[in-house]
Description:
By secondary structure, this protein is α/β, with parallel strands linked by helices. It is 28% helix and 24% strand. It is built from 16 helices and 31 strands. A hairpin with a 2-residue loop joins strand 22 (336-340) and strand 23. The longest helix is centred in the middle third of the chain and has 15 residues, at 305-319.
Amino acid sequence: MDKKRLLVVGGVAGGASCAARARRLSENAEIIIFERGNFVSFANCGLPYHIGNVIKNEDDLLVASPDLFKNWFNIDVRINSNVKAIDRQNKEIEVEDLIKGGTYKEKYDYLVIAPGSSPIRPKLDGIDSEGIFTLRNIPDTRKIISWVNEKKPSRAVIIGAGFIGLEMAENLAKLGISVSIVEMQDQVMPLLDKEMAWFIYEHLIKNKIGVYLGDSVSGFKKKSDGSIDVLVQSGQSLSADIVILAIGVRQEIELAKNAGLEIGHLGGIKVNEKMQTSDKNIWAVGDAVEVKDFITEIQTVVPLAGPANRQGRIAADFIFGKNPMGAAFRGVQGTAVCGIFGLTVASCGLTEKSLQKLAKNGKEIPYEKIYLHPNSHASYYPGAKTISIKLIFSPDDGKILGIQAIGLNAVEKRIDVVSMAIQKQGTVFDLEEAELCYAPQYGSAKDPVNMMGMIASNIVQGYTKVTHWEKLSTSDALILDVREPFEYKRGHVDNAINIPLGQLRTRLNELPKYREIWAYCFVGQRSYYAQRILTQAGFNSKSISGGYIMYLASDSI
Ligand code: FAD
């Protein structure tokens, strides 16, 4: 058999998984990984936790070493090797040896590029001052750890409240450092809808993290005592002994671009569903590529480890032709999870924000949404915690469009179920019927997944009508609070009248038939019961989804 040469650029998530899969498919191929850094196959996702001393040994972050690649897979790993150029005509790459110096060339039959993405470092005044860090790899981690050990910082400012920023906030706080976060948008975790991010905001404040929203950094000023003033647009300045920049990543596309490979309009390398670039002998995977969104089929960029790994495997499957079922990359759903001081935040699919953006761009997808706050497991079994969920779906056929959930316990397993349902083009009726494992310490006989399906299917089938707090200001509906008087007294919506659910049937005569009635309670369950009573008694009524807690969430930041 012809001995084929597979060269892989980048030896972490996408590149390493591609090379290892390639070997399992072809014992005969010659496979070489080129990695610019001095580590391959390390766990970037664990880096914040090593800084926070949760993962104590750096070695635990090293999933595989060059030796392991050699011994187990017969793959030649060349670290400290920067691939400088691709000569597509001659099917060869130019490699710079970063230790010995000089360059050399290597021929390929197939080339896979998995260069990833690098942290954005804007050109701001003072950005190169000592003590300002980004986090991508093990050398970055070492620098942060040394700074923490040597300088013993007492104040940290983190710029950016996305996944990495929030993980770093938690881990620096664990080291006893007082942490503030500056975020340009008016919410933390910009990937979520704002009202859902409110739960995270509250949790950060509870954990004594300073949060500055809607403000962006304009520069840095190094002071004579070694501290750094972080200057923000609003005119404030925050003092820090360490600064972490976590404002997003930019795809590493120089190599591909210089080789004339097609680049998409989002700035990622263009690939087809086989992960093949515009050159049929070159594949690209991971953070650096643009792929289609699974739901909208519109191009997107999702820098996550799961897609990178899957794409690497798929590229190898196509390269070595052992893909009898033709399993191409299906697109990304953006399924993600993050832990913040014990709170789990997870999401999948489209947010309301992204749907509104699509509509603005002329690609309207009709949607409805519900909020619910079920327990993580049966409430009578100790340790049950509330999960706040937002489910977005099509009001026409119940097709699931997206989900966001936040809570202290068993959040991610619900997201994983819904993520799979989305991939199977599932509907809220599928969630209603999902048969999930149950014992009281794990879930409920009506699991939160079933609950969201039941609530949403009631809406699609017309059994329930819901409305939302953001419509309050433009509505003249009568607002009916069906909670107990003591709850009402603690706080209620202006002008809401209070008739507790238990008294509603006997006090219907107090309500007008000519005016729409919007019922609410604390989480949306009693208001649903109220809405059913009212509708069957001939009133025109709706339940405000998610209840008073979502009123607070929508209104408070
Ligand atoms: P990378 O893993 O970045 O690997 C690319 C490699 O290519 C790099 O090592 C680079 O040195 C090398 N390279 C680039 N250009 C060249 C060249 N010209 N020559 C030679 N080598 C080159 N994702 C999640 O899903 N969950 C998480 O919890 C999570 N946490 C994260 C935490 C942190 C701190 C970071 C930084 C990322 C995290 N991610 C997480 C994202 C995830 O790590 C990435 O999506 C994933 O690693 C992308 O894989 P990749 O192979 O495309 O790129």
